[in-house]
Amino acid sequence: MPATSANLGPAFDSAGLALTCHDVVEFAVRHSGLEVALTGEGAHTLPTDESHLVVRAFRAGCDALGWTPPGLAVVARNGIPQGRGMGSSAAAVVAGLVGAWALCPEVQGVDRDAVLRLATELEGHPDNVAPCLLGGATLSWMTDGGARAEQLEVSPDLVPVVLVPDGTLSTHVARGLLPDAVPHADASFNAGRAALLVHALTAAPGLLFEATEDRLHQQQRAAAMPDSAQLLDRLRTAGHAAVVSGAGPSLLVLTRRSAGRDGLHEVRDLTPPGWFLRVLDVDPCGADVQVGTPGVSSR
Question: Which long-range contacts (CB under 8 A, 24 or more apart) does 195-204 make?
């Protein structure tokens, strides 16, 4: 399951990007009981019982499929930082649902449309679950029938760089800082930038700086992550297409291969001590399911 970065600046709750940082989760049906083994990120703080988010999502998937396995073993090797705005909860939800579909003897393969709809119900919005499931950059939206999404073919010139601080931030807290209403001018501004973002991601990465401008959510949540807000301001003042990754506090900088290494060096120079910089790629595949013995592995 890939990490994801949602919003990408102006496309609040509707755009996301899959990144080459992964959780790997293995599932196997047992005769009885539940076994959960964890390594990597969050291994010493996450629960190992029915309350684990992967297990909860797996059970929800089984309920949707009308199937109840006698017992379950889950082994999770977590590479996605927890509580940093990199889609760790979306990855857990998608992993659990994909595991249920892959193991259920009553279905043939994973119904990604059904998984997307149910994952959105569990997660609350589709901006992270869509790229986690489908890979690449995604646009997602809600209909009367549930969530829908489309994958975009990202320009090969795009290089995502994630800046991860020590601290965490609850998505619930971050969303609670948003106002109930926004000025019409700001809504119009973001609509234009979100449209431009699609063009910049796919065909014209030279426009990414302007395409990632936002007026709806980043400044409004700055008080909950002042260090992130200050670094974001420094990066954008220097001309980098930097945004808050999801609800934060991590930042995403969309750099370009064609610009050479000078831009990346400047991003490194602007990153303060205590932050971890990761140069990643766009994950084009999303949820990768490998079925074999003894169970199912979801990468």
Answer: 197/8, 197/9, 197/10, 197/11, 197/15, 198/139, 198/152, 201/8, 201/137, 201/152, 201/154, 201/155, 201/158, 202/137, 202/152, 202/153, 202/154, 202/155, 203/155, 204/155
